Amino acid sequence: MFTGRLRALARSMSTAASTTAAAYPFSKNVIIRPATAIPQSIPLESLQKGKGLMPFLQTALPPPEKRQWMETLFSKRHPDRLLPGTVVTVITAHAPNTFSGVVLSIRRRGPDTSFVVRNIVQRTGVEMQFFANSPHLKEIKILKKSGGGGGRAGRRARRAKLFYLRHSPLKMTAIAGGVKG
Amino acid sequence: MQATPTPADPLKAAKWTPQSIRTGVIARKRGMTAMWDDLGARQPVTVLQIDNCQVTANIVTVRKDKTEYHAVQLGATDKREKNTTAQMMGHFRNANVGPKQIVREFPVTPDAHVPVGTTLSAVHFVPGQFVDVVAKSIGKGFQGGMKRWGFKGLRASHGVSISHRSLGSTGQHQDPGRVWPGRKMAGRMGGVRITTHNLRVVRVDTALNLLFVKGCVPGVDDAHVMVRDAKKIMVAQAQHNQAKGRYEKVLPKGVDDLPFPAGTQEMAKSLPPVIEAPSARVISPFLPRE
């Protein structure tokens, strides 16, 4: 009974191994990916000489699922981009599975783009840095757009990096007060 | 000294052996970015691009003690003919290649010579193997002891006058009464040849001739770098494990064979466009290990 199942498994594994061996004979465990799509506007010769290669890789390396985020949430000019001071909930595949707070900073580095979220959890200030293109980052939900503090504070943050919030608990509660998780 | 190496038996395709040392490749450091492997661990990677790297000569030199030095000479990055000296133009004409900006050689074993004129490709390296990258480091100019040698300097206060970052003492007293040669002092830092060892090849892209290696590499962006199989993990370990009979440890885990004598553009046409190494980890970085 077991030997039959094992033989079937071995057979399926061997066919998979033989196809990868035929495709790439130097290693069995490599991952074969489709060719990086080069748009018509960029000539291949100039990319092969390195002209504009890194800016091209900034857009081409993130997987297709994440490219939508890179073009909207993490772009510099999109109307729906993430602004520092926005209150977000981030859902990850690892613990803590959800984390909410204020976006303090966005670090734009193409595939290495990341942002820092701060919240007060059980009277302790907690910051988490999330990498946008990480496979563990599942969802970013915007709870309150930047500038939702009310009154004079009800305008967008006048800084790109809100590290001053680390020393002002009053402003933190004004912006992200009562946000659980 | 140029000499034609002994022609290999055309019926027996050249195969990598643990005693062989293959040629390296001349690439250009294009920049750094980050990638996530199949288990979800983030890897900082350096992007190296192979810019028309061709074999310009196979070198065989017989030394006075009758031993032989074998090397493969490569040229990379095309150059304008008007900017190339007549002597170098003659050399490139012999090899039937266009003028190149940089010409370097890689010592090899006699079986690893590559036909002159062959264009090397990124498929020369197998994802999962380790490489050494040699380049000139970023020049830092004239630097003091603290930056150049990691000296601690002196106190910021408590009576220290003017010498907060100075070298301090440079020796003993009347005996020896001089400063030993090699005393670490201030001077020019950087701009020297540096080898970074044991960098793992993470991804190979054949269309753009890109090599993604994990970690950082000396030099500025767009600088020429020499990439070769890691001497410690690939060459020395292969020879040692073969001699000890540990045949499964001859090559790094996951690597079965290496293109021999070199991974060429012709070979790249028959291989997949983008090849990525599996994670070196066992489980996801966010799961606890038992």
UniProtKB/TrEMBL annotation, chain A:
It comes from the Eukaryota. GO terms for molecular function: structural constituent of ribosome. GO terms for biological process: translation. Coiled coil: none annotated. GO terms for cellular component: mitochondrial large ribosomal subunit. InterPro entries: Ribosomal_bL19 (IPR001857), Ribosomal_bL19_sf (IPR038657), Translation_prot_SH3-like_sf (IPR008991). The keyword Ribonucleoprotein applies. Belongs to the bacterial ribosomal protein bL19 family. This is Ribosomal protein L19. It comes from Heliocybe sulcata.
UniProtKB/TrEMBL annotation, chain B:
This is Large ribosomal subunit protein uL3m. Keywords: Mitochondrion, Ribonucleoprotein, Ribosomal protein, Transit peptide. Its main location: mitochondrion. One of its GO terms (biological process) is translation. One of its GO terms (molecular function) is structural constituent of ribosome. Coiled coil: none annotated. PROSITE patterns: RIBOSOMAL_L3. Belongs to the universal ribosomal protein uL3 family. It comes from Heliocybe sulcata. The keyword tRNA-binding does not apply. It is found in: Mitochondrion. GO terms for cellular component: mitochondrial large ribosomal subunit. Pfam families: Ribosomal_L3. It comes from the Eukaryota.
